Amino acid sequence: MKSRIQLLVQAMQRHPRRFMAGLGALLLGTGVTAVAVAPLAPDAADLPTQQVIETVTPLPVLPAAQAALPARFELFHSDLTRRNDSAQSLLKRLGVRDSDAAAFLGRDPTTRRLLLNGDPGKLVSARTDDKGKLIELKVLWLARSGKEFARLQINQGNKGLRSQLEVGPLERKVRLAGATIRGSLFEATEAARLPDSVAEQLADVFGSEIDFRNDLAAGDRFQVAYETLEADGEILSYGQLLGAEFVNRGQKYQVVWFQQAGGKGAFFSPDGQSLKRAFLASPLPFTRVSSRYGTRFHPISGRQQPHLGVDFSAPTGTAVRSVADGSVTYAGWKSGYGNIVTVQHNDQKSTAYAHLSRIGVRQGQRVGQGDLIGAVGSTGASTGPHLHFEYLVKGQHQDPLILARDGGKQSVPATAKAEFRRVAQAMREQLDAAATVVQASAQ
Ligand SMILES: [Zn+2]
């Protein structure tokens, strides 16, 4: 018979979300006292009975025989609802053997609508006595707004079972995780049980500094702190990455998420420099420069003439992004440029995006850095699909390839420096705590 620890490990592998709830609580020393072990396999009927348990006092090993258990005890099972669940199939998975309960689930309108015919993937848990009679059934899920949770509870009242539906605010919590890299970043984030949305934020935030595909080394490591939205100690949704540290070939990179009251948050280095540059390096996400700024032999006129922009070769339809915040000063047709969009930024800087197949903005519109403004094409005097991109300062053309470093970085506003230092220091401590656990678990 497998030990409780082995079963827990299996459950962790199959239910990383549940496991993270346990680990996070452990790291932060909060609330949860026992890890609720969900059914261990898709088909719970394949498993020996009694392996899915939760006890108030954790047992080191599962009792081998019925005799070792107290005369009466309660069982706790949890699982996720499935699309085609019937009252019978759901109760069977939850270890409930109770025909009254099955009849109630099939008859009660709230339960039918929300539990059996609602969206699948709701967290459902059942408490039964040792005969399988239902004591309480609880269902938790994220409300459609994403800001609240809903809880459906079915329990014994004076006149038999009754259902009750409640809606409440989600609780924001911070979870810590980390891992040492042995293969790919993806393998490491999986090993750390990092939810996908947080792993993506991690890759994004360090993506311009670290080449995750080609430059990771064995022994690289990371720690993260991220936000969860919870109800009754269960994670229902994941939020913002709040801080991260990545050590790549001995070099340490750190970021802290900082958001002033009422403001838009952003990532900063611990010394208060924004990671977001004022200008993106390129209006296309992945691209190659096919013609640089300067004098060139013009492919259409056949003469030597100045090329006042940079050409990025890319297939027709590739998304074109504004390289910085600004407002659209022109969006339309302009002779040789074909479809062109011009954007005015701060400090008398402006950018132009030409030969577009499609324009996605209109004159006067505000755009943010990275916002879609159109698509690559070959309109106007163009020999093939590419983006002609210009950069002007006070109306004078400049080499667009210097633009990213020209824009410089933004830093925490002077009025928020003290608050930022407090946030950054607290994050430092949390990431150090996460690192200690990663190292301990690696030994
Ligand atoms: Zn050009």
Structure description:
The structure is a single chain. This protein has 443 residues and is an alpha+beta fold. It is 22% helix and 36% strand. The protein has 9 helices and 25 strands. The strands form 6 sheets. Strands 12, 15, 17, 18, 19, 21, 23 and 24 form an 8-stranded antiparallel β-sheet that branches. Strands 1-2-3-4-5 form a 5-stranded antiparallel β-sheet, covered by helices on one side. A 5-stranded antiparallel β-sheet has the order 6-7-8-9-10, sandwiched between helices. α1 (4-14) crosses α2 (16-28). The longest helix has 26 residues, at 417-442. The radius of gyration is 29 Å and the shape is elongated. The two termini are 27 Å apart. Zinc ion (ZN) binds next to loops.
Quick description:
By secondary structure, the chain is of the alpha+beta class. The chain contains 9 helices and 25 strands.
Distance between the termini: 27 Å
Oligomer: single chain
Q: What's the number of helices?
A: 9
The helix fraction, in percent, is 10-25%
Largest sheet: 8 strands, antiparallel
Residues in β-strands, percent: 35-45%
Radius of gyration, rounded? 29 Å
Uncertain segments of ≥5 residues (pLDDT<50)?
1-64
- Mean pLDDT reading: 80
Bound molecules: zinc ion
Number of strands: 25
Helical/strand content category: alpha+beta
Shape: elongated
